[in-house]
Amino acid sequence: MRRQIPYINEEVSNRDFKYYIFDWDDNILHMPTRIKMEHRDTIDSPWKPVEVSTATFALVRADEEHYRAPGGVWADAFRNFEDAPGRDNFIEDTIAALEKIEHGEKPSPSFYTFKKTLIEGRIFAIVTARGHAPETIERAVRVFIKYVLTEEERETMMSNLRGYRQWIDGVGDGEFGTDAEELDYYLGMCRYSAVTFEGFKERMRADPIYQEKLAVAPTAAKPELAKEFAIRDFVEHIFHMLRRNGTSDRAVSIGFSDDDKGNVKCVSDYIRSELSKRFEGIKFVVYDTSDSTLSKGRKVCVSGQLNLPGF
């Protein structure tokens, strides 16, 4: 017999506090979006236009002898990765990627982890090199929920979300909103950072610490630097959320996954040198998902203790 709705999972109060940061392309989904570049075989050959996948780009972006942005203008390389009037390409590409999985394509390494994160109702962040508005990325998450979660899994997600609201926010019986309203509340607690979106870049430039970092960073290092900023923003969001709810004495862990080895190294170094010192009570785990033969990626960094000190 199917359970009645609304159902509240009161057992979530016994769970550990695990939060997740996901790169999107080739980590959650193999997106069909292509990057516009130019390629030449030798230093004396003419540059020719070519479109590459995000996976290929991660391998060739540092090969400046053979690959470059169109005319050297990087803004033109990522036109397919931005919002534009009359285009809904991110949502369309997300649907196309999900339909390929429905037809038997092997999912990306973090696909099932992201699915589990949603079902369990855990707070997460999407941090991507794309240039979409946060609202666009949230819409893509809703598409993922619609296509990937079964009806029973969506019911489980909603029962978990109500359980967290009852435990942490003190929402009582009869005070919950509709499923749509509770889902809005949950997804509104998460973070969506497309690091080449102009609004994100403005926030980063306004930060005193990252003003200085950006001033001395070479162009090739700025995407990794932007991911640092987005990760710090999410960790601070989680920390203050726990303090506000009076649950800052619980063990906390935050996992980050990315298929780009450069990003993985940058984030791992950042955690070791800064975040693990500033947030000594948080356990940080980084997963390198660049090797498609490993189902969940390779764990490359664990740091932090399991007690949460003052901020």
Give a structural overview:
The protein is α/β, with parallel strands linked by helices. The protein has a domain at 10-28 and 107-303. It has eleven helices and nine strands. Strands 6-5-1-7-8-9 form a six-stranded mixed β-sheet, sandwiched between helices. A hairpin with an 8-residue loop joins strand 2 (35-39) and strand 3 (48-52). Helix 3 packs parallel to helix 5 and helix 10 packs parallel to helix 11 (261-278). The radius of gyration is 20 Å and the shape is globular. It starts with 16 loop residues before the first strand and ends in an 8-residue tail after the last strand.
Distance between the termini: 48 Å
**Beta-strand content estimate:** 15-25%
Overall mean pLDDT stands at 89
Number of alpha- plus pi-helical segments:
11
Elements, N to C (H/E): EEEHEHHHEHHHEHHHEHEE
